[in-house]
Amino acid sequence: MIGQGTVEELQLAGAELAGMVGRPAQSYWSESVERLRANHIGMAAGYLILFLAVVAVMAPLASQFVTHYDPTKQDLYSQFLGPGRQHWLGADETGRDTFTRLVWGARVSLGVGFLTVAMQIVVGGGVGLLAGFFGGWIDNLLMRIVDMVLAIPAIFLFILMSILFTPNTLTLSMIIASVGWGGVARLVRGETLSVRGRDFMLATRSLGASNLRLMLRHLLPNVLPVMIVAASLGVGAIILAEAALDFLGFGIHPPTASWGNMLSNAQTYFAHSIWLVIFPGIMIFVTVLAANLFGNAVRDAFDPRLR
Amino acid sequence: MLAKFVLRRALAAIPVVVGVTVITFVLMHSTAGAYVPGLSLNPNLTAAQVSLLRSQLGLDQPLWIQYLDWTGVAWLMQHAGLGGLLVGAHDITPGMLEGSFGQSMVDGTAVSSQVFDRLPNTILLTVTAILIGIVLSIPLGVIAATRRGTRTDHVLTGVSVAGVAVPQFWLGLLLILLFSVQLHAWGLPFLPSGGVMTPFTGGDMIDRLAHLLMPATVLSFVYLAIWSRFTRSSMVEVLSQDYVRTARAKGMGDRRVRYVHALRNAIIPLVTLVGLELPGLVSGALVVEVVFSWPGIGLLAYQRALAYDYTMVLGIVTFASILVVAGNLIADLMYAVLDPRIRLA
């Protein structure tokens, strides 16, 4: 694995060698991206997630031009109307259009998924870097905090905190990330420990590099692959956790549509209106499946420990 | 050596438990500090009655005294002659020291008695699910490994990838819809949709098993998905080992090679994986318990959280967290006994 600061020199050396070895020199990053692209299932899953993200961002446009319904508009004439020409995927107990609500629900699921991952990577990565780099009592203190956070069963902590804060996309992400950062911190710390002892770190330090420069310019690029892998593997689990919280009533509250609270709502009526249960569940399942498949592909392509 | 390892691990667990109690206590009391249940329902309460209620619940004491009282440290201090330090405290109880974890704000029942009432149900559910997971995942993993690259393998891998992505509550609803609602509608024998047994008339073995079947299946699904994949990759690795080739070369039957020589070594790492589930034994089933109205710890916490019964939720969370720390400790010790290399690390 190559630190970013040294990439150019090594590439120069590689170019001279290229003729002899018979394979052009390639940076770690371009090689990983190439591997990822070769994984067709993973790429298809990635494009699906991208598509869902675009749909989520475009939800207002979609409900205006594609489905022609408002996600919270009630219409008692189409109460429990089955899937058909008027409502493609049926309507719920107040006649709200299921398809429109699913489109808006994507905003919640994907929004929380990406926001949470971003937060836990930044916080967990930061803590892991600090703990691994400085070691000693800083390491001890930070890792004991991680132990404590991870010792409280996550679902209870989520419930406790959602009583405390009014859940919306942002606070819900913070709630889920407040547990998720612990795992990332452990992972990044471990990787940092293994990189810290390498010769190039000693060499850079002896050239007079400051701690900050060592961490950001030399350590970070080397632990970045682990963070990327953790991030892409995390999204699926977060979307599942968020949906479960919505379902339990500790997440996004109605009338805002989310896949989880649509399912929770459908519990009352599912004996006669099965589509209310089927479609939100399929959306969660497909999204999580795609996120996991893409995550696995990213891991196979990027994880230095698998090489 | 082993005794030293045990002691070191146990000592390291103490600050974690203390930290956990502080975190949950502060979280809970940031919401519940000024709260007296039933207040909003009753406009006839006078200010004097409210302050009496708050005094009875101990909410008029400083936060740190409430914490010390709850954990039992205050009681210890009082008996060590340090009671003078506890300015503004009253009605000091042994708290957690007598295993009480506090009492409900709503109905005054002890958290511990509620928890121990529900604990057997939760343990029954999770242990059954883990057993189903083990019993099914090992054969499936072995089949996939021995037929590597065939259609069977691809289907099994696909199923296990999908298994991790299915929301438990959705799977539960679908099963209820099929096995309780539809079978009932068609006039066929059907499964009960919730509870641990039929009230009044039920309670025999068959009735209990019928109630257990669906929630345990849903809960085991994730285990099944993860463990069968793990068994497969572990088995694939073992099957390429020299001693397997030696066994084959000396003319041993395929079946015997696979199940006696290879499988035994392949499932050792699975012990670790199953051990990882130990801490989640109590809290991992919350969603399933809610869907199937299974009267376990998870359902209790869920119902009490909805009723804003802060002290009860606090007690349950603390209890569950202590079990997590204990579970981790037991898992650590198990590995140390199984694998001597760990003790030295």
Please describe what this structure looks like.
The complex is a heterodimer of chains A (307) and B (345). Chain A is mainly α. Chain A has twelve helices and no strands. Chain A has helices at residues 7-21, 28-38, 40-57, 59-66, 98-134, 136-151, 154-164, 169-196, 199-206, 211-248, 259-266, 275-302. In chain A, helix 3 crosses helix 5 (98-134), helix 5 runs antiparallel to helix 6 and helix 5 runs parallel beside helix 8 (169-196). Chain B is mainly α and 345 residues long. Chain B is 70% helix and 0% strand. Chain B has 15 helices and no strands. Chain B has helices spanning 2-32, 47-56, 63-71, 73-79, 111-146, 151-165, 168-185, 205-239, 242-249, 254-266, 268-275, 286-291, 297-306, 310-338, 340-344. Chain B is flat. The termini of chain B are close together. The A-B interface holds A 144-145, 147-149, 151-157, 159-161, 163-164, 236, 240, 243-244, 247-250, 263, 266-267, 270-271, 274, 277, 280-281, 284-285, 288-289, 292-293 and B 15-17, 19-20, 23-24, 27-28, 30-31, 161-162, 164-170, 173-174, 177, 181, 280, 282-284, 286-287, 290, 298, 301-302, 305-306, 308, 313, 316-317, 320-321, 324-325, 328.
List the defining traits of the structure above.
heterodimer; A: 307 residues; mainly alpha; 12 helices; B: 345 residues; 15 helices; flat
Q: Give the oligomeric state.
A: heterodimer
* Computed CA radius of gyration of chain A, to the nearest angstrom: 23 Å
- The residue ranges of chain A in which pLDDT falls below 50 over 5 or more consecutive positions are none
Mean of all residue-level pLDDT scores of chain A = 84
Secondary-structure element series of chain A: HHHHHHHHHHHH
Reading the helices and strands of chain B in chain order gives HHHHHHHHHHHHHHH
